[in-house]
Structures are given as C-alpha cells and as structure tokens.
Design a protein that fits this description.
Elements: E1 2-7, H1 11-24, E2 28-33, H2 42-45, H3 52-55, H4 58-65, E3 70-73, H5 84-90, E4 93-96, E5 102-103, E6 116-118, H6 119-127, E7 143-147, H7 151-161, H8 174-181, E8 187-191, H9 203-208, E9 215-219, H10 235-249, E10 257-262, E11 265-271, E12 278-286, E13 292-302, E14 305-308, E15 312-313, E16 322-323, E17 328-329, E18 335-337, E19 340-342, H11 345-348, H12 357-371, H13 381-391, H14 398-410, H15 424-431, H16 447-452
Parallel strand pairs: 1-2, 1-4, 2-3, 4-19, 6-14, 7-8, 7-14, 8-10, 9-10
Antiparallel strand pairs: 5-15, 11-12, 12-13, 16-17, 18-19
Helix pairs in contact: 1-4, 1-12, 5-13, 14-15
C-alpha cells in the first residue's frame, strides 16, 4: 500500500489523484488537502464566472473524490496547521499542487497606490474567494486600465463591460454584481508592451469581446502588421489576430463603453493624489526577435482602477526549496526532494490550460511508482488524523463540501447555478448544517466584517 498526500485540490491536484488511482489501483490511499473548506481551486476561484462550461470539468474531479481510496481534507493549511516535515512522516509521497495564486509584482512607481489591484485579487473578488471578497475595487470613475495581453486581461475587461443581464446565468458573487451594476466606467484600456502578433489571447476569449451588448472593442489599424505577415503565425494565433483586424474595421454601434487595445505601450508609472488617477505609458518598438524597448515617447491614460494581469507565482512554503526567479518550487521534472513532488503551476509556472495539468499528474504517478516503494509502514491518513485530533483542527470532508454546494445552489438568484458563501465562517457553518436548512447562514450583508474579524485566513496557497 502506498500513502499519497496531494496538497491543493484544483485541476493539478485531482489529475494527480486520478493518475495515481490508475497507476496503483486499490493499492493506494490518497488524501487531497486544501487550506480552504471547498475544493476545485482554480475552477471555483479563477475561471471566469460567465464561463460555466469550463467549470463543468469539476464533475470529473467529483468522480475521483467519491472513490473509496480518495479523501478530501479541507480547511487544513500545510505550513501552518501541519508542517511539510510532519506530512512527509505520514505519507510515502507528498505532491504539491498549490498552484500560483499570488500576483507577480508590478514593478513601477505608484504600483502601491489605492486603486492598483493585481488580477488574482480582482478575479478573486468577483469569484467570491474568501481572501478577496472585501476588496471593494474603485469602479466610480470613467477610466480603467488593464495591464497585460493574455486571457486574464480579457476576462477582467469582459466582466467590467458586461450588463447584469449578460451575467445573469453566471455564478458571479452578489456583492460583485451589485458593484458592477453601479459602476460608471466607460473606457477600458488594455495595455500591451508588444504588438498584435505577440498576444497570448485565445480566439474564443478574444471573439467574445465582439458580442457584448454595451461595449465595443477598439483597435487602431496602424498597430496591425501587414495582413500577409499573419501567414507565419500558428492557426490559433491567426484567428486571434483576425479578431483584432475585425475590431479595427468595425463601425461603432453607439455602445457606451469602449475597450481600447493600446499596443506597443508599456506602463512606466502610476500617478495620482493619494490614489491611482493616471497611468504613464511609454511607447515601445520591437526588434527582430520581438523584444520590446522604449522609445522615450510617453502619454498618460486616465484611470481610477488599474488591474495588473502580468502573471502569477507560487508562494514559498517552509521546508521546500524555492526558485525565486521563476516564482515556483525548485524541481527536476516534478521531483523536489526524495518523496516530495510538485505538479501544475507549482512545478512549471503559470502556463498552459486546465488540461495541461493532466500529463503532470501522470508523470508524477510514474515517478512515485519508480522511486517510492510500497509497504513503508508510514501511517498515511491515520497519522494525519492523529495530528488533526491533537491540535483540535476543524477539517472539512467531501460530504461537508456537498452540503456547502447544495446550500449555495439553494440560495442562487434566478437563472444562476449558485450563490457562493464568501467567508470562512459562512462556509464552515454551511458544512456543519447537515440537512437542517435553519443552520445554513443567509447571504452576508457585511462581508468585510467577517474578514476584518480575523476569521478568514491570510492569502496563501489554494489548489490550482
């Protein structure tokens, strides 16, 4: 028998558990551990709320979670409640699938001004992450700037621009929906330091901007390369650039919001009187290798909200070698130390799609088979349970999660799949409610009070 602990209950974690099941059959016991009382990590807190079809992959993870040899242990933080060394004493193999939930810093003057927000925080706010539910981003001005040319930047722009009716079937949180309905933003600028041929935006997500009710994407035709240059791109990239060409050619239909693509533009400072009011942008040019450099020409873009979508990193974990430059755990093909592994973004950095994590899980399961003999005598989940009991920790099981899930579905607004609980106390209360709906907390009108009380945990790893 092999005992495996997977830290992080997002896609990378569940794909690893699934791979271990297939590799070892009944001769493995797997505990999937998460610091939050809910599973699915990136699926719940990272995927845009209006992309419900993508969230459907959680049903696959649910099948894994309901297997006899897999257990979910939520509301347990490794590094705080239980150390990595203690976990290694209990299990034959420990796999870190903690994702990359922390924003890479925006290293420009003024990046610490109120109104400048990382995408992890902003996305967490509208997706109901307990760490960010009380964020209250400034939405009362006319201008917003989004820094970055990837899909997360598109998600942020789209959510800012959509009407309440367009978000009705999503699982956006009530507090975010109300704030967005009252927003007065009319100009959303997406800054990219390079050009259309260098974007990391996929065709589906880019094309969605052209279907919005009250917003129109705007591209300067002068920023586009000659059409015949598109032939050198891969098919997906060509489709994305074609969307940009279509945006450049389209006539505005009187929409009150514009989403302006500002290419060859690098933010060099954020200015304002005690809060963000404008982004200073330097125009760039590309060399033969596609690298951007400044031209010295600058302009200002008015913005009371600045969202930085420039990438993520994995938080360090005590006792685990860490690659500071790459923002991930030091590893060689997923192996960190004997018996200690990593998968997903914690292994390779924030790259690829949700499905990209699946081969990581398979590779680590193969490495465990080759490097970790069975029958070591380690106690596995019995040992972890002893630590939990000795420390009086209040952990959440998958059955508890199903109670939370049912309660969220029951309190959803019309047409929406769920209304999430957005604080740790609310989630725990729902988990303990059993089948008595009188114990399920109502939607909280004072989210900030929960968080300010210290009931919610500080930001740290969630399942990626």
């Amino acid at each position: 028998m092999r005992h495996v602990a997977v830290v992080g209950s997002g896609p990378a974690g569940y794909y690893t558990a699934e791979a271990a099941q297939k590799r070892f059959g009944d001769a493995v016991r797997i505990d999937i551990i998460d610091r939050l009382p809910v599973p699915y990590g990136l699926i719940r807190f990272g995927v845009a709320p209006d992309h419900q079809s993508i969230k459907g992959v959680s049903r696959r993870y649910e099948q894994v979670a309901l297997s006899d040899n897999v257990r979910f242990v939520g509301n347990l933080e490794i590094g705080r409640d239980v150390s990595i060394a203690e976990l290694a004493d209990c299990y034959d193999a420990v796999v870190l699938a903690t994702g990359a939930p922390v924003d890479r810093p925006l290293a420009v003057p003024g990046s610490d001004l109120p109104g400048v927000i990382g995408s992890a925080a902003f996305v967490g706010w509208y997706n109901g992450h307990p760490d960010w539910a009380a964020l209250a981003p400034p939405l009362g001005g006319p201008g917003a700037v989004i820094i970055g040319n990837g899909n997360v930047a598109l998600d942020v722009a789209r959510i800012l621009a959509k009407t309440p009716d367009e978000l009705a079937a999503s699982d956006i949180c009530a507090h975010a929906l109300a704030a967005l309905e009252a927003a007065t933003i009319t100009r959303i600028t997406i800054l990219g330091r390079r050009g259309p041929h260098q974007i990391a935006m996929t065709p589906k997500e880019l094309g969605e901007l052209g279907t919005l009710t009250r917003a129109a994407p705007v591209v300067d035709p002068a920023d586009l390369p000659p059409p015949d240059a598109d032939a050198a791109l891969d098919p997906g990239q060509r489709k994305s650039v074609q969307h940009l060409r279509d945006f450049a050619a389209a006539a505005r239909a009187g929409q009150p919001i514009e989403i302006l693509f500002d290419f060859f533009a690098s933010p060099v400072a954020i200015e304002g009187d005690g809060r963000a009011e404008r982004v200073i942008v330097e125009e760039t040019r590309l060399d033969d290798q596609g690298r951007a450099s400044g031209t010295g020409r600058r302009h200002a873009v008015a913005a009371g909200l600045v969202v930085s979508c420039i990438g993520y990193q994995t938080p360090p974990l005590a006792g685990v070698p860490y690659d500071q430059g790459r923002g991930r755990f030091e590893n060689e093909d997923g192996r960190i130390l004997p018996g200690l592994y990593c998968v997903g973004w914690a292994r390779r950095g924030p790259s690829g799609t949700i499905g990209t994590n699946r081969p990581d899980g398979q590779a680590v399961a193969d490495r465990i088979a080759a490097e970790v003999p069975g029958g070591s005598g380690r106690p596995g989940r019995t040992g972890l349970d002893r630590l939990i009991a000795a420390r009086g920790l209040d952990v959440v099981t998958f059955r508890d999660w199903q109670r939370i899930e049912a309660a969220e579905a029951a309190r959803a607004r019309a047409g929406a799949p769920r209304e999430k609980f957005v604080s740790i106390p609310e989630l725990i209360a729902a988990a303990r409610a059993d089948d008595d709906p009188r114990l399920i907390p109502p939607a909280s009108p004072a989210i900030g009070a929960h968080l300010a009380s210290g009931a919610a945990r500080p930001p740290g790893p969630v399942g990626e």
